[in-house]
């Protein structure tokens, strides 16, 4: 190529204008982008409105939500609260001066477990009654005095008086140890064992006292009074021995005198008592056929 041709070509290229390429989104793509941006803004406004409405309805505040308040000491609930799942808490108490009310359609259970999740103490209140399970059960007064205590070994009643209001009284399958047994004023005290024996023991004596009434001891077979080292004293103005057998005299020793109504009390060698018609002397030897 000659030098004239090269210079002519350069002049032609320099005389042409540079081409400009536009970069961007135009046409329907631009309209779709604006539409999606507008739709996103509408969704953001709707979500913001719903969030504000939920915060208003649920009463969300800095301290909590609704009747729930978060304090330094824990969580505070005002009004009625319903728990659909188990509640785990260290302490549950009401507001000062207001009662604590627990309600359930089935039962209310309080369980105490150890670190191995083994049940130690349980308290259940339901439609069938009140149940308590544990090693020991105690009831104390406001002053701290023990009123009632129960465990596997014994049951202790610490009150000054134990009253049984049932019509049938109290039934004990084992022994009873008490320093004093008495009935209410103007009521009868009755100790009874329908099918077994009744035994009263005391190392320093047993005192049975009825200040304004009678004392009755009734048995089907034998009533035995025994004193090993002392004596049995019957101290009264009148002593009546009812239904004592009457000794009969033999035909050879019977007299034909008038019938008398005066008897003497005789004692057999085995301790049995019987009556014998009184005479000028003792008639116990004559009428001792009861001792045979």
From TrEMBL:
InterPro entries: Sarcoglycan, Sarcoglycan_gamma/delta/zeta. Pfam families: Sarcoglycan_1. It is found in: Cell membrane, Sarcolemma; Cytoplasm, Cytoskeleton. The chain crosses the membrane at residues 32-55. Coiled coil: none annotated. Keywords: Cell membrane, Cytoplasm, Cytoskeleton, Disulfide bond, Glycoprotein, Membrane, Signal-anchor, Transmembrane, Transmembrane helix. GO terms for cellular component: cytoskeleton; sarcoglycan complex; sarcolemma. The keyword Membrane applies. Its main location: membrane. It is a single-pass type II membrane protein. One of its GO terms (biological process) is heart contraction. Signal peptide: none annotated. Belongs to the sarcoglycan beta/delta/gamma/zeta family. This is Sarcoglycan, delta (dystrophin-associated glycoprotein). It comes from Xiphophorus maculatus.
């Amino acid at each position: 190529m000659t030098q004239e041709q090269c210079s002519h070509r350069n002049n032609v290229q320099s005389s042409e204008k540079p081409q400009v390429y536009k970069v961007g989104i135009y046409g329907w793509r631009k309209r779709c982008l604006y539409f999606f941006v507008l739709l996103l803004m509408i969704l953001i406004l709707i979500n913001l409105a719903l969030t504000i409405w939920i915060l208003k309805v649920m009463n969300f505040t800095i301290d909590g939500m609704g009747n729930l308040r978060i304090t330094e000491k824990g969580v505070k609930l005002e009004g009625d609260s319903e728990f659909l799942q188990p509640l785990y808490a260290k302490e549950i108490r009401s507001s000062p001066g207001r009662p604590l009310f627990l309600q359930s359609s089935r039962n209310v259970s309080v369980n105490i477990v150890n670190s191995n999740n083994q049940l130690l103490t349980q308290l259940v209140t339901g439609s069938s009654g009140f149940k308590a399970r544990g090693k020991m059960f105690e009831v104390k007064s406001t002053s701290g005095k023990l009123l009632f205590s129960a465990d596997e070994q014994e049951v202790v009643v610490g009150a000054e008086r134990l009253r049984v209001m049932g019509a049938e009284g109290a039934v004990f399958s084992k022994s009873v140890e008490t320093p004093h047994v008495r009935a209410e004023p103007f009521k009868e005290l009755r100790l009874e064992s329908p099918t077994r024996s009744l035994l009263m023991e005391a190392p320093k004596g047993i005192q049975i006292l009825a200040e304004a009434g009678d004392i009755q001891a009734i048995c089907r077979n034998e009533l035995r009074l025994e004193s090993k080292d002392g004596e049995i004293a019957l101290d009264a103005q009148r002593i009546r021995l009812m239904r004592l057998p009457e000794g009969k005299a033999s035909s050879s020793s019977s007299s034909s005198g008038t019938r008398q109504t005066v008897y003497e009390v005789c004692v057999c060698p085995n301790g049995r008592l019987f009556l014998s018609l009184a005479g000028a002397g003792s008639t116990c030897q004559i009428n001792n056929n009861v001792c045979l």
